[in-house]
Amino acid sequence: MHIKHFSFLLTLTFLLVSNVVRGQGVIPQTTQEETPQTTTDSLRIRPFESTAITEAFSASNSLISESGQSHLSGEVIAGYVSEIDTLFSTIHQFLADSTVITLQDVSIRELESITQRAASYRGTLDQLQDRLAKGAVDLEEVVGRLDQNKARWQLTLQSIPEEEMIDTRLDRIDNIVHRIDSVRELLSTDLATMLGEQDRLIDRGGELEQLQSRVRDAKIALGESLFSAEMPGFFRDLKHLGDSTLVSKHVDQFTKSVKTDFQILKAEYAAPMIAVTIILVLLLIFAVWYSRHFARVISTEEFEISEMQKTLVNSPVVTILFVVALMVRFIFSDLPHTFTALNLVIMMVPMMIIVVRLFGGVLRTWILVLVILYSATFLFELAYFPDILLRIVLMIFSITGLWLFVWLIVKKPLESKLANPAMQRIYRLLVLVFTVLLFLAVIANLAGAFRLAEFFTLLPIQIAVLAIGIQVATKVADALVFFFLASNYVQKANVIREEFEVIYKKVVWLIDLFLWLFFFTTALRIFRLKDALFEWGRGLLTDGLKLGAVDITLGNILIFIFVIWLSIMITRILSHILEKDVFTRVKTEKGVPSTIILLLRIVLISGGFFLAAKAAGMALTNLSIVLGAFSVGIGFGLQNIFNNMVSGLILAFERPIKVGDVVEVGSVLGTVKSIGLRSSTVRSFDGAEVIVPNGNLISDQMTNWTLSDSTRRVEILIGVAYGTDPEVVLAILKEIASEHEMVRKVPFPSAYFTGFGDSSLDFRLLVWTHVDNILVVASELNTNLNKALNKAGIEIPFPQTDLHVRSDDTKPKPAAAKAKK
User: Fold this and answer.
1) Which residue of 70, 86, 271, 308 is 20 to 30 Å from 428, comparing CA positions?
2) What is the mean pLDDT of residues 539-558?
3) Measuring CA to CA, how many Å separate 4 from each of 382, 636, 641?
4) Cβ-based neighbours of 104, under 8 Å, separated by 6 or more
5) Are 549 and 622 in contact (CB under 8 A)?
6) Residue 712: in which H helix or E strand, if any?
7) Which range among 29-33, 138-142, 258-262, 319-323 shows the weakest confidence by mean pLDDT?
8) How big is the chain by its Cα radius of gyration, in Å?
């Protein structure tokens, strides 16, 4: 049957089966909100058969014993309650703080700290909630099995006829039911306790959520009052310098901040910090060893090491400190503010050293002052209490920052380092904008707009340090990826060695993309636009249309596209690994690797499609509608595509052709390079790559020259002059053919005297050789035969045409005609 007719019949069959299955309720037609209620005999609780009661006793005893093991001991329940009470005590202290209650005269960093702590507590509550929920589900399942078993025994009691009632059996049934009730009561008590604790967690989580909502409102209020003057003029406020409590207030605030943050770190981050310390020590040891044995790990003759990479290799301690500090910043983004500041200070010290070593000593003074200034802002934030003393410190920050950026404008130390003209223009614009902001910060501080001055002062300093840190991070990441891929151990992998440049560039691009996305999100937080922008983006992604039971939103569409893209990328990566590293080391039958890779692609992409549909919020049962519509499309507009896809599956399983086969399809003769799901690629002997639909390979006539054997016959036609002994010629032909190393001995070469030509005695030489050697063997045999025949004095004639001129006797000769006259 023709494949197109087959695909059309398959389409009709799918439609009919879909309709029948829907009619039987296998594919539900209800929406996601509706739950079809079906009652079948298979779900109905039935009594035990009289012949199976003895066996049921044993099964019920096992069930009761196993269920009793699910009972929570007093120590376990006490542990849950103690853990929750301790957490509630900490949260209560946090919520009872006067600053948290009122949110009056609170700075933006204090609001961020409150948000951070509330989010941390909510995360802990959610973890406890998940643990309790899992335990409650397990208990409910056990209680359900007990109830079902009890119901069956009760039905059994009711169904036993009076004449068959045995007292001992009735007593055993009553005992079983009583034991079930006892165990069920214990488990029900445990379940009630866990559900009660879940309710407490939910209530406390609601309080934290309300606090986060209030903090968001407070941030909005601060933003609206940013341009208002909340303090007297700077010089008028100087009269308060004589207040003896100025320093003590800042010291108290600093002590309170550090103490609170240390308590949070001790309670929630003690174990992770120990793990980070161990990782840091191990990485430092490895980096020092790597620096000393660098020439043994990487072949410097094969890979060219840049000056930047050499600098990082020769600075192992500095590099690892920067990398680990950056990792901590990414992994623990919600660290308490004190330890976030400490982490950033630790990260900036190696960052400063790397910048000086990479870009030269011209930036030494500038970067040192910038790092000191940025570090001092953390003390400013931890000891925050708005007064004249803090205004003086802020004025110092503003003037110092202004000097730093004016120095950049005058000296221009970085412009020569930026080869891209667009980056140079962006750099000049940012430096100019930051300079103007710092100048406005001085004016705002003098006028009494303290919050505006603070915002304009800290923003350029933080953005500048962040940009430098991200730039250094991209350089370090570039070097680390290069060192990893170029190491002798990793280079043993064929896929890494052959695709080094492609893999290196793509990995570096992904890391740089991630780092710059982090830069922009952090910059948005510094600009105080992150919450508003993210809220707007969340609404943009979640708001959409509702068609029946399917919600169509931009977020679902993006998730669907991303998962499909990710599945395709994973498929390509695994295919490359299998093709270049696995199957090159494992002996398999010809064509098996390509078949396995094709099937892997089908499975991963198909699985990725269903996973993408599920991740996008689409119920998989609703896909039957899509598949039904798709099948109609197959029957009409997509018939050829479906034909080629089915043909691809046939090629994968039946394997009439394999990668590497020499095939002839129509006028195309070449080697099969790849077999895909829809089409295959044949590389012609002229070098062209021809895309052949799989349907043509299945439905049309195709010649496979190497299906079961890669040998092919070569035919040499030759003619010799008349008068030559044919037996001598046949002997020469066989001798020359048998002596050639590329000619197969089985079957043995054969020569034939085929007939008498116009100018020669015609002979035919037949030999067998590998398909790749056809042209070489034919050329060398012709050359050798020409030498051998010449040596034997045998002439190879060329076609000759003789012209014979005859006179016409019917006409009189000119001389005879003249004589008659």
Assistant:
1) 308
2) 73
3) 75, 11, 10
4) none
5) yes
6) strand 711-720
7) 29-33
8) 43
- The distance from CA 337 to its chain's CA centroid, rounded to whole angstroms, is 32
Residue 46 has what DSSP assignment? -
Consecutive H or E run containing 445: helix 421-447
**CA 578/CA 567 separation, integer angstroms:** 16
Tell me the pLDDT band of 395, cut-offs 50, 70 and 90: very high
- Asked if 456 and 444 count as a contact pair (C-beta separation under 8 A), the reply is yes
Specify the amino acid at residue 454.
E
Q: Which two tokens stand for residue 292?
A: 């000393």
Cα–Cα distances (Å) from 714 to 302, 737, 772, 779, in that order, read: 45, 11, 12, 11
Q: Does the structure show a pLDDT above 50 at 542?
A: yes
SS3 for 165-228 is: CCHHHHHHHHHHHHHHHHHHHHHHHHHHHHHHHHHHHHHHHHHHHHHHHHHHHHHHHHHHCCCC
Residues 6+ apart with CB under 8 A from 118: 94, 208, 211, 212, 215
Give the Å distances, CA to CA, from 758 to 130, 398, 660, 761: 97, 107, 43, 8
Residues 6+ apart with CB under 8 A from 197: 80, 81, 84, 132
Residue 285 clears pLDDT 90, i.e. is over it? yes
Burial class (CB in 10 A: 0-12, 13-18, 19+), 117: buried
Which two three-digit tokens encode residue 53?
A: 């009661």
DSSP letter, residue 656? S
> Chain centroid to CA 503: how far?
14
What's the DSSP call for residue 301?
T
Report the amino acid identity of residue 118: A
Say if residues 349 and 321 touch (Cβ distance below 8 Å): yes
Distance CA 239, CA 388 (A): 9
Q: Which residue has the tokens 């809220």?
A: 535
Q: With left for phi above 0 and alpha for psi between -120 and 50, is residue 605 left, alpha or beta? A: alpha
| More confident call, 479 vs 54 | 479
Confidence of residue 397 (pLDDT cuts 50, 70, 90): very high
Is the distance from CB of 494 to CB of 581 less than 8 angstroms?
yes
* Residue type present at position 461: I
Buried b (16+ CB within 10 A) or exposed e, 654-673: ebebbbebbbebeeebbbbe
pLDDT digits (tens, 9 = 90+) for 321-376: 999 998 888 888 777 778 888 888 888 899 989 888 887 777 788 888 888 888 88
- Residues paired with residue 61 on neighbouring β-strands, in sequence order: none
Q: How far is CA 797 from CA 106, 170, 641, 726, 793, in A?
A: 110, 115, 57, 15, 12
CB atoms within 10 A of CB 161: 7
